[in-house]
Write a structure and sequence with these properties.
The protein is mainly β. It has one domain: Immunoglobulin-like (Sandwich). The chain is 11% helix and 49% strand.
Length: 101
């Protein structure tokens, strides 16, 4: 019986990483706080009629997605546990936090 349980666990395989979508609309992120698992990605979609530039200077995940316009998106792999503070370089009041577990 014990070997059967082990075989089932092995057959299930590793958990798949998730993709979380964050919209940018009205000069704000669609969420202020987002909780993800290490290995998940966050897709930042620009739903505004002007450009955004999403970035983070956080120690665990530093990135700059550059400027991109309406209808476009860019993604970031969250590969380390901790807190990632995210901002928009174009709109300084746009801020959010990603907690990577």
């Amino acid at each position: 019986m014990r070997a059967g349980v082990l075989l089932l666990a092995l057959a299930a395989g590793p958990a798949l990483a998730a993709e979380h979508v964050v919209s940018q609309k009205g000069k704000t992120f669609s969420v202020k706080k987002l909780s993800v698992q290490a290995g998940d990605s966050v897709k930042f979609v620009n739903d505004d009629p002007f450009a955004h530039n999403v970035f983070s200077l956080s120690d665990i995940k530093s990135f700059d997605l550059g400027s991109y316009g309406q209808g476009l998106f860019k993604s970031v792999l969250m590969d380390k546990k901790g807190i990632v503070d995210v901002e928009c370089a174009v709109h300084p009041d746009m801020k959010m936090t990603v907690e990577v577990k």
